[in-house]
Amino acid sequence: MSDYILELKDIVKRFSGVVALNHVQFQLKKGEIHALMGENGAGKSTFIKVITGVHAPDDGEIILKGEKVTFANPREAYAHSIAAIYQHSTAYPHLTVAENIFVGHYKKNRLGLNDWPAMYAETRSLLESLGSSIDPRAEIGMLTVAEQQIVEIAKAISQKAEILIMDEPTAALSEKECEQLYQIADRLRDQGTSIIFISHRIEDMYRLATRVTVFRDSQYIGTYDVQGLPKDKLVAAMVGREVVSLYPKRKVEIGEEILRAEGLCRQGVFQDVSFTLHKGEILGFAGLVGAGRTEVFEALCGVTRLEKGKVFLEGKEVHFKHPKESIAAGVGLLPEDRHRQGLVLSWEIYKNTSLSTLSKYISWKGMDVKQERLDAKNLNEKLGTKIQSVSDIASSLSGGNQQKVVFSKLLNSDLKVLILDEPTKGVDVGAKAQIYEIIMDLVESGYGVILISSEMPEVISVSDRIAIMSNGRLAEIVDAQGITQERILATAMQVRDNGEGEK
What we know:
Blueprint: E1 4-15, E2 18-29, E3 33-37, H1 44-51, E4 59-64, E5 67-69, H2 74-79, E6 82-86, H3 97-102, H4 116-129, H5 145-158, E7 163-167, H6 175-190, E8 194-198, H7 202-208, E9 211-216, E10 219-225, H8 231-239, E11 257-266, E12 270-278, E13 282-287, H9 293-300, E14 308-313, E15 316-318, H10 323-329, E16 331-334, H11 338-342, H12 349-353, E17 362-363, E18 366-367, H13 369-383, H14 399-411, E19 417-421, H15 429-444, E20 448-452, H16 456-462, E21 465-470, E22 473-479, H17 485-492
Parallel strand pairs: 3-8, 3-9, 6-7, 7-8, 13-20, 13-21, 16-19, 19-20
Antiparallel strand pairs: 1-2, 1-4, 4-5, 9-10, 11-12, 11-14, 14-15, 17-18, 21-22
Helix pairs in contact: 13-14
């Protein structure tokens, strides 16, 4: 009998002549958490769709519990105890937790009616088995992303899933929520569930997996034991080259003050936030989720209302009531959620690039589409965006390339200050390194950059100074050189009574 609950051998998948999977393989043991890693475009998503019956392979074999199987659709894969949990919830937002878990297979009472007491009780039991106290009667659309994922896991358990695929489940989670998910995954593994864990976060793999399989350019690269696996070897396998430093910090001369904030307040959200930013400087903003980092800069840029405080740009006081005013003045914000706030996914790349600067392409003759397309082409070439044409639809790009298009939109304006909110969130390790290079190019050319990041190694390595937020207050501003994650966490978890700002 095979040592594996699931095997995929020499899987090939083509789309219109393009090879998406080129003779890849994968083996999953019972009760194993096996990580699948690779850059965007490596073939991971297509591979998962083959396992779950969304796509039929053009060649190769799927072997489940020693028997060759084929899946015509996801229902057949689900019937064979294979379930998938995705980064973006597939639940019905207006239904309750219990309704989502039992939709399509409601329990019936003796009268043939839906047995809601039984379903509520079983839902509560399922959630408690995962260490969760979510109310079975809660509307799922009102839950956090982490809670919605727990419900999806509970649904899979209710259907007796033996193989669980978790596709980027931690991308939108806080560190605390990540740890909760880790504990659930550990619990399921100990109960015999086999888990395929897909993530861009290398720390996820080291925390959870015993083995990791790497894809690159639609091909199988190798499977490695996680214990003792050097990080640089893993990164090299993923990107096809040695990455000397994931954080290519350069020595840049810090210039004159370009932005100053004094006593920024918004009742109940943040208060007394003061800082300065200089040309050629990267000022990092760290803190726990909910500390108020994003909210400060949304208010500064006119996305929301700033109630108190002053903002000075190159020594002149400014007050932005709308983001278009901040962009016109030279302050641009790259939002945390690129799908909802940064891009119109159904639009072409060139339209997204010019979205904030349409006025410069409009004259009495009409819209200068030729120049609009040329500017988009030049900017995206400069940023290294992997596209065939600026007419490509934004939704067709990988996460890293979508983020570069958002950068192109900002750089199409005449900016002086860039505020980057989680600029590497949800992108692979190779794209991260490219985005850091872009940031370094910008500060070398004289931009002032504010970097908001929940990844502490990132904010420590890239920043010149770090502003630490805690419960809506700026607790401390420190030199990034020599600072530790422990020091940042300790500061982020307390509020200084004096509410002091810059040090």
